[in-house]
Recover the amino acids of this structure.
């Protein structure tokens, strides 16, 4: 109790509250700009926290983190371009919803889902951190590989009109991920001594090129619309946050399931929000009574994606607090900020610095409340973006994509890659290839290859994938996932044929 | 006239047939090119070194992926060839009409390519400024008010962004060959 009160005392003072508020705003804005990631925002915040007391520094960074997870959905909903990798699935339904004249509803759904997702993950973090962390770190290469196989089955839900084209897009993603240094031996693959490819193809460059460039080019395809100075969304904009809150709360199972998916994926080191949003979306679609509505502006899809990605913030802290293992790059930076202040990270953290840990738990709740207030107050401002003519939006966003791509690694060659991938993405879009499986392939490719090879390096016996209980369970889940996707597809085809 | 063109009763049916045939052609061309590339990469991956420490070498995983990709290429080519044959021939001006319809997208893409290529030479500021002004002009900022707004937006997004990154984030955006 004493530690709890001490943590509360350190957190609830004016300087900490102010820096947290600034952190939330900075996170929302940074993640809303395509090309700028939460990791970049956190890294830029780190030096500013050196002069702060430990808890104030960590709380400020947690505020950036939570603000960032929500900010990523703003450009996903309004422009169809995910602001961060964790908002890819948000584009599937939030953007069509905005295009149908409901951008306010799309944003409010995302904000509320993010808020509840963060709250649920914070509760799980407090209750279940030690046991969940023990499970997460006991996963070996076999389990990781099986987890990736399970995640890859999402492709079956994202394929769009043609299964073969969707699978091919997913495989293309896996192939793109193999360019550059081999993850285990360091041998360069498919670079052909071209400096452009020497460092491989960074995942974020693929994400920005595939989604942003191709989406923006599609926006300017109709010369008549451009001539009339049309904005992205030309209808009147309504924003009713309380009505939307009720809509989100009317989906308790979807909200809880997606948040728990987010917590689990967040707790698994190396996974994170970029996978959680897609996995939560996929599970929501499979569990829905109206799966055919997904992709057309369905509220369940927005809630699943946003609660799933926001819940990874709490999930990621589970191995960090319980065992001192950072689950993602962002968690590693958080860990660094604590270490700078001389706080040792490891299983004894909760024993030696209980006040800081309790303070972090409270900071999660506080930051999510701040995010909610900031977003609800500023959404009308963000919605004005939809009234800006395309003639301004398109070049401005393209420029910000170039800036974001360059600042990822300070490499000019990355912007050449952005151009090439953007053109390739546009060609794929014109030929109806779904882009989400390609991005998923790029995310999962290195994890799949590393763990497959590591598992076989440890023991050449292939049957271990089927005899280790967690691995077997994940593979069985993957099988069920594929069967459900095929069943839905057959049902959908039968219905379409009957209608024709 | 083949069966499909005889069955096309309305102009929208005809337009759909043209689109199907054009897309089928696009799929075939794209997948043939990709299949050749993937076969080349598959052979190349075979020469990647393996290790005595692990049963799978550097080339195994890419080869598995490439083999699957070539299989998918084959399936798509087979399916789309059927569509291509079943649909009536494209009108003579189909390609040029399509290019004309997409002229703004190609214009923006061309300007974007010039911008990207100019960044390392003239620096971010001087590459982005003309890109932003020209692109906005191309997309409809033709009157005095529109041009003034375009110039203001361009200044903020080029000089403003460069100053923000340099002074606040201490990140230097490309300065070009002469700085």
């Amino acid at each position: 109790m004493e530690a709890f009160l001490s943590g509360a005392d350190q957190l609830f003072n004016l300087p900490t509250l102010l820096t947290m508020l600034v952190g939330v705003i900075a996170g929302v804005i940074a993640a809303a700009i395509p090309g700028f990631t939460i990791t970049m925002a956190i890294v830029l915040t780190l030096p500013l926290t050196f002069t702060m007391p430990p808890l104030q520094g960590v709380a400020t960074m947690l505020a950036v983190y939570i603000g960032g997870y929500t900010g990523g959905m703003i450009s996903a909903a309004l422009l169809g371009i995910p602001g961060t990798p964790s908002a890819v699935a948000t584009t599937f339904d939030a953007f069509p919803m905005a295009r149908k004249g409901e951008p306010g509803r799309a944003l409010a759904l995302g904000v509320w889902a993010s808020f509840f997702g963060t709250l649920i993950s914070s509760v799980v973090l407090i209750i279940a951190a030690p046991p969940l962390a023990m499970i997460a770190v006991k996963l070996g290469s076999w389990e990781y590989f099986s987890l990736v196989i399970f995640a890859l089955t999402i492709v079956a839900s994202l394929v769009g009109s043609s299964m073969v084209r969707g699978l091919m897009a997913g495989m293309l993603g896996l192939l793109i991920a193999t360019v550059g240094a081999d993850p285990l031996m360091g041998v360069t693959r498919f670079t052909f001594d071209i400096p452009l490819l020497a460092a491989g193809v960074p995942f974020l460059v693929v994400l920005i090129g595939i989604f942003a460039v191709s989406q923006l080019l599609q926006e300017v395809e109709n010369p008549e619309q451009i001539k009339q100075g049309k904005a992205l969304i030309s209808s009147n904009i309504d924003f009713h946050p309380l009505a939307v809150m009720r809509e989100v709360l009317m989906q308790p199972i979807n909200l809880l399931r997606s948040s728990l998916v987010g917590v689990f994926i967040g707790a698994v080191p190396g996974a994170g929000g970029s996978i959680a949003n897609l996995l939560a979306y996929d599970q929501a679609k499979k569990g829905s009574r109206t799966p055919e509505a997904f992709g057309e502006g369905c509220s369940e899809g927005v809630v699943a994606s946003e609660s799933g990605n926001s819940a990874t913030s709490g999930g990621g802290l589970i191995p960090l607090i319980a065992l001192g293992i950072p689950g993602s790059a962002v968690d590693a930076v958080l860990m660094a900020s604590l270490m700078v202040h001389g706080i040792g990270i490891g299983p004894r953290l909760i024993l030696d610095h209980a006040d800081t840990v309790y303070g972090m738990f409270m900071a999660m709740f506080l930051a999510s409340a701040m995010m909610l207030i900031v977003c609800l107050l500023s959404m009308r401002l963000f919605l004005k973006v939809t009234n800006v003519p395309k003639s301004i939006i398109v070049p401005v966003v393209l420029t910000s994509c170039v800036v974001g791509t360059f600042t990822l690694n300070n490499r000019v060659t990355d912007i050449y890659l952005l151009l090439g991938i953007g053109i390739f993405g546009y060609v794929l879009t014109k030929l109806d290839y779904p882009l989400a499986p390609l991005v998923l392939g790029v995310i999962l490719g290195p994890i799949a290859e590393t763990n497959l090879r590591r598992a076989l390096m440890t023991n050449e016996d292939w049957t271990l994938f089927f005899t280790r209980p967690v691995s077997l369970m994940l593979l069985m889940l993957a099988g069920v996932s594929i069967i459900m996707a095929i069943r839905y597809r057959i049902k959908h085809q039968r219905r379409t044929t009957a209608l024709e | 006239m083949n069966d499909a063109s005889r069955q096309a009763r309305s102009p929208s049916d005809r337009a759909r047939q043209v689109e199907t045939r054009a897309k089928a052609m696009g799929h075939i061309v794209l997948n043939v090119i990709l299949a050749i590339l993937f076969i080349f990469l598959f052979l190349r991956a075979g020469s990647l070194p393996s290790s005595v420490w692990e049963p799978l070498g550097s080339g195994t995983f890419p080869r598995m992926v490439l083999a699957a990709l070539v299989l998918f290429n084959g399936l798509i080519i087979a399916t789309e060839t059927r569509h291509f044959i079943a649909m009536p021939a494209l009108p003579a001006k189909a390609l040029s009409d399509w290019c004309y319809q997409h002229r703004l997208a190609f214009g923006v893409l061309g300007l974007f390519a010039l911008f990207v290529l100019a960044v390392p030479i003239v620096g971010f500021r001087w590459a982005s400024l003309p890109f932003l002004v020209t692109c906005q002009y191309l997309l409809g900022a033709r009157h005095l008010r529109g041009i003034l707004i375009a110039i203001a937006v361009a200044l903020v997004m080029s000089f403003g962004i460069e100053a923000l990154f340099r002074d606040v984030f201490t990140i230097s955006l490309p300065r070009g060959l002469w700085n």
In short: Chain A has one domain: 2-499. The CA atoms of residues 102 and 248 of chain A lie 15 Å apart. Strands of chain A lie at 180-181, 188-189. Chain A is about 75% helix and 0% strand.
